[in-house]
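Human:
I keep going back and forth on a fold encoding question. Comparing notes only helps if you start from a blank page. Show me how you would write down a chain together with its backbone fold. Write it directly below this note and I will take it from there.

Assistant:
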Amino acid sequence: MTLVVDILVEGLLDETVARRLIEHCGHTPGHSFGKKGVNYLRLKAQGFGVKARYGNPILMLVDFKDTGLECPPAVVTTWLPQPCTNLLLRVVVPMIESWLLADREGLAAFLGVSPTLLPTMPETLINPKQALVNLARKSPQKSVRAALTPAKGVSALVGPEYVAALQKFVFQTWDVERAKLSAPSLQRAITRLQALHR
């Protein structure tokens, strides 16, 4: 039986990843909530737990790096002191770019660089977003560099089309099965989504 699973996330890239995961696990993405940053998720988590109890299951993704807590399990116990089985609060370690970097072959092909340049354990990186931008700087493709990297003299951390380019990667190229082998928090999220079938 196909379930409709709603989405609660920090931003647009996280939403795209969530949709892809829901579909990968045999469900249908439903309504999308949030996209207002980590504080919105922290403040609204308990309320969405109540919503999920009486409606569609909700996949909630939050970057561990943004929470300020000491460990991923602390996010769940702090934000959801009264757990709801239908609110799937999954902590991305340390941030959503880790899951993209975990598909070394796919992301390397997308960027036009050698897979050997990509980290083997992306969840151990201090700043996966910066690592991804640095990889894009090595791309021989001008369009990739222009989209993902900030221009010289610009204070932005990423390029002007960073989110749009990575959304395209997620939908068209990202191999979830390959990525989960190098990203334990992604594997746990997939396992939890698949458990909804039972």
